[in-house]
Amino acid sequence: KDIGLNMERLLTPKQLAEVLQVAPSTIYFWVHSGFIPYLKLGKCVRFNEKTVFKWVESRSKKGRLTYKFEV
C-alpha cells in the first residue's frame, strides 16, 4: 500500500566523500562550517542525494564563451 512518502536517498559522510572524491574529513569540515547542506538525525549526519547534487551544480563555473588566441 502506497502511503505517499517520497523518501530521497540519504548518504553517509563516507558515501558522499566517495561520490565527490574528497576525504571524509573534508565532508565533516564542510558540515562544521555550514558550507554544505546536510541533515542531522540524532547524532548522525546525512546528506540528501538530490539536494547535494543541486548544490554541486549551483557551484559549477562556466568557462568563457569566446577566447581569442593571438598567434
Structure description:
There is one protein chain. With 71 residues, this protein is of the alpha+beta class. Strands 1-3-2 form a 3-stranded antiparallel sheet. A hairpin with a 2-residue loop joins strand 2 (39-41) and strand 3 (44-48). The protein has helices at residues 13-20, 24-33, 49-59, and strands spanning 10-11, 39-41, 44-48. The model has no long low-confidence stretch (mean pLDDT 87). The longest helix has 11 residues, at 49-59.
Set out the fold topology.
Layout: E1 10-11, H1 13-20, H2 24-33, E2 39-41, E3 44-48, H3 49-59
Antiparallel strand pairs: 1-3, 2-3
Helix pairs in contact: 1-2
Q: What amount of the residues lies in strands?
A: 5-15%
Q: Which residues sit in consecutive blocks of at least 5 with pLDDT less than 50? A: none
Order of helices and strands: EHHEEH
For the secondary structure, the number of strands is 3
Query: What is the end-to-end distance?
Result: 68 Å
Residue-averaged pLDDT: 87
Structural class: alpha+beta
Radius of gyration: 17 Å
- What's the helix count? 3
Largest sheet: 3 strands, antiparallel
State the helicity in percent bands.
40-55%
Shape: elongated
Strand order of the largest sheet: 1-3-2
